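agent: user wants the structure for Cold-shock protein from Paenibacillus violae. delegating to structure tool.
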Amino acid sequence: MYFRRKSLVDLVQENTKVWACNNEDCKGWIRDNFSFEYVPICHQCLSPMISSLKMLPIISNSNKNMKSLHKGRLIS
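agent: tool returned. relaying tokens verbatim.
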């Protein structure tokens, strides 16, 4: 039986800034526009995270003030 149909519309993807865990054993990551800190730590293993790019579907974040705590440094 075929329970899961393929979606009729392909999601638009773009290169997105993400924070990826620096620990090789951990696969944790978070989108930059959804993180609360300028340099976050991994919530799974508490290791530092590094900035990278990932092809992801576009998601808009209506809350533009996520990093109001002004911790760490701004990535470019």
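agent: one observation worth passing along. The mean pLDDT is 82.
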